[in-house]
Amino acid sequence: MGAYEYKLYFPIRDMVGSPLHPFYPMPPETRSELSGKNPTFVHMNRESGQKVLSQMRYHPMKNGLCLIATAPLRLHPDHRSEMVSQLLFGECFFVLEQVTDWLHIEMAHDHYRGWVAANQVELVDEATAESLEKAPRRLTAEHLYPITERISGITQLISAGSQLLLHDTDTMKINDKVFHYQGQTIDPAKPVKNGLQKHANLFMHTPYVWGGRSAYGMDCSGYVQTIFRMQGLSMARDAAIQARHGQTIHLLAEARTGDLAFFDNAEEEITHTGLLTGDGHILHAYGAVRKDRIDHHGIFNTTNNSYSHRLRIIKRMTD
């Protein structure tokens, strides 16, 4: 990027959290890694062009959550940096350190790490975090549906898969904010029959966005992770890590609805994934979330009459 120098802490890509708890305990290795560390961070003042030394401030077990529809999670603390993932409304995180107006966080549900702008999230104290831990948890099940903050009157459209930590039937209270949501929700502790297919269909035609996980835009692994999470199942964030888990299905003919297919590139690296529908087709994010034919060679794109992805492996993530 040129504007910053980086040395420490890149996203963890091989860890998943609990699908049933908003704040999942930070792994001991994370706490020991950060304890007592306040490394220096070199950044560039955009106006003066001068380098400035900032201190990374470690926040032991400081918690927060996202209260806007989506907040970008970036590789580096810079709005121009790559978006590696997203926080959806209501999703919780741990603060690892702070640099100027940026927080380095670890997401609670999948332990993915990245940088989020401090003014796009809400920090909570320990008592509030404990209260949220006990709150009934629901995930939204409408493609896009309004949620209103009662005091300010501000309404925003939040994506399917967003998290509600409920104070009562349709109200969520965080600090001095009170949110009201009347759309359909699901309890991830009670999986829906044929839920993976139903959740997957919610996002049909959603535009492809690298790092995206919402109805505003999603990438292939974000699509898979979101629909599995809505079914109460934890998934890693990246396709290459998702492919390490589950039961291998050796023949496409033996696959069933809800199995995942993974695809590789010329270097044999897993670069793509999608949900098999059990009828010779696959749902995946490629340009947009779409349904394509699949055979033992890979995904056949009828738009340009050619194969777009080479099949590497099929995995079954559910019983």
Radius of gyration: 20 Å
Biggest sheet strand order reads: 21-22-23-24-25-26
Biggest beta sheet attributes:
6 strands, antiparallel, barrel
Number of H/I helices: 5
List segments where confidence is low: pLDDT < 50 over at least 5 consecutive residues: 1-20, 24-60
Beta-strand portion reads: 35-45%
Q: What structural category do the secondary elements indicate? A: mainly beta
Descriptive notes:
12% of the residues lie in helices and 41% in strands. Strand 2 and strand 3 form a beta hairpin. With 319 residues, it is mainly beta.
Key traits:
single chain; disordered N terminus; mainly beta; about 325 residues; six-stranded antiparallel beta barrel; about 10% helix; five-stranded antiparallel sheet; globular
Detail the topology: elements first, then pairings.
Blueprint: E1 4-5, H1 28-34, E2 40-44, E3 51-55, E4 57-65, E5 70-74, E6 83-88, E7 92-99, E8 102-107, E9 113-117, E10 122-124, H2 126-134, E11 137-140, E12 144-149, E13 155-159, E14 163-165, E15 171-174, E16 177-181, E17 185-186, H3 195-202, E18 213-214, E19 217-218, H4 220-230, H5 239-242, E20 247-249, E21 260-264, E22 270-276, E23 281-286, E24 288-294, E25 298-301, E26 306-316
Antiparallel strand pairs: 1-2, 2-3, 4-7, 4-10, 5-6, 7-8, 8-9, 11-14, 11-17, 12-13, 12-16, 15-16, 18-19, 20-26, 21-22, 21-26, 22-23, 23-24, 24-25, 25-26
